[in-house]
Write a structure and sequence with these properties.
51% helix; Rossmann fold; single chain; 9 helices
Length: 217
Amino acid sequence: MNIAIDGPAGAGKSTIAKRLAAKIGFVYLDTGAMYRAVALKMHNENIPLDDAAEAERILQETSVVVRYEDGTQKILLDGVDVSDAIREHFVSQAASAVSALPCVRLKMVELQRAAARDANVILDGRDIGTFVLPDAERKFFLTASIEERAKRRYEELCAKGATCSLEAIREDIRVRDYNDTHRTLAPLRKAEDAVEIDTTAMSVEQVVESMMWYIEE
């Protein structure tokens, strides 16, 4: 069984997907982390994020592996654990740009579909229910106000000791929303058969329980 969770940046997709996967015993595949890994490699090699030709070239020699160790998801880029590095703030913006490149998206989708064929999985992203797994048995679209999404991201970064600006984060999210909804291939949008949940005023537990109701139904 496959469960698709889509929505804009900061809507709580990853946090809720992890909690839901643990609750029902599914494998959680962080698709956003896969794009972040590619973005990190392009950044490290000084490749412009809109250079499709160079992106296609390095994809031929790039390995992105999602592995679980003691219940914790690890992202390996060319054999190196980059689980922490891909959470740097600049990588978030870079991933949004890189994911708009058709060659990158098609390569990641190929890996994601392969994972979904082999296990009961929960995938979260921007186009899971519309493009990656259009036949998923359950689809959800999580959203929240841009103010709430910026606040969550700000608090997350501050908790990690990062110095950041709430206004800058809000602007980053606004730009990511525009990029995600206007890209040519598989833009962010709600699948027709997805259940939409506005998480603005909800706790993680409330969202999970709401989703559980639909899954059990």
